[in-house]
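Quick one: structure tokens for this chain, please?
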Amino acid sequence: MIVLFADVMFTGLPNDAGEWGKMILFGLLVVLFCSLISLASLKMSFKRNKDILDD
């Protein structure tokens, strides 16, 4: 949400459907990227905690 707000602040509101589509796609890509980073971090943390409990 913050990324979309920043995008609108710097580029202005989209004028036509193509620009709206680009902005929505950009937002979805940012959300997907952040989700993948969070998932990778969660997996590493789970593995580390599991190793600690196994000892």
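Residues 2-54 form one domain.
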